[in-house]
Write a structure and sequence with these properties.
With 146 residues, this protein is mainly beta. It is built from one helix and eight strands; from the N terminus they run ββββαββββ. It has one domain (2-144). The protein has one helix at residues 70-80; strands at residues 2-4, 21-27, 34-40, 43-50, 94-101, 107-118, 123-130, 136-144.
Length: 146
Amino acid sequence: MATSVDELDAHNQGLDGRRSIWSFVFSKMNSDIQYWIRIRYNEIEWYDFIHQGKTIEEELIFLDDIIIDSPEALNIVLDLYNLKPGKNWARGHHFNLWRGVDENGDILEGVLFGVTGFTEEGNFFRAQINLTTGEVKGYDSGSQLQ
């Protein structure tokens, strides 16, 4: 799992698809060893050990699974939805990379690349691109969080 992180003095708030700070969870397969790592401006800012149960191969994201980068994901989403950057809460656009699960907890096919922002009405909005199937879905929370 990877997610971009907000910062108050950010000069780049994801408007071009890039963020300066990211958090990652790295897992050792078939073990409960996981590392939570934060990267700030291409340097490891901090890391910690976390234990969330045994990681199986189906949960892992491999480099070959990531076929687009956040700038391309943002362009795909902006072409489909009139997404606006956040202004106060979750400033700019944010990005996530994860394996999806269905309502039964079963792992879905493909890696999901998420892009967040706001609708014209100010509702929090997340679009997700399935990097395996190419399917794009959008979710309007109906919540005005800006």
